Amino acid sequence: QIAEKVLSQLDAQFLEPTALPPHVRERLRKAFYEIVAEDSCGFNFQLVFRKGGRHFGPTAFALPSGFIVLTDELVNLAKNDEELIAIMAHEVGHVVHRHGLRQILQNSAVTLAITYTTGNLALVGRSYPEVLLQVGYPWNFELEADAYALDYLLKSGIELIHFANILQRLDAFHGGQTEPEDAPSFKQTIYPYLSTHPETKERIIPFL
Hints:
With about 210 residues, the chain is α+β, with helices and mostly antiparallel strands.
């Protein structure tokens, strides 16, 4: 329910319907379900496509239930499917290790305390989407998801350099883009959850 509410909120305010051709989406979904086939852990994994637009641009992110969102811009930025598979494996790692849920719990202590004393469960329901979106993953969460991606790429015989390549391309895009003053860039969005990552040069070392 939390994941659905968050995605609904993003759809209403920022994301747009995908414009990717059906055959591209089907090809990527097939690769995605191969990633989660042996490690579903009871999650409801779904690959969701959206156009990121000026707020998100090329990116991917995971929601706690197993929703993985890929933007059209990321698909178009990738040079091959292997790069996207690496990104999807990283996001699956966030779900499998319950990083989103752990962030919610760690950042909801005050709300949960109020709920316990007042019995106002609606307060928690309203706060969860905001908590999930407004916090970024800590360094250890990102490295844990990177390790999951590395392990999957090794088992699948996919060259590790693909993950390093797409991360560097994303870093170059988001670091060098220019936009009108009234158009928030990716890093200025009100959802730092989507843009808070460790330094790319350090993250890619295991993949070189």
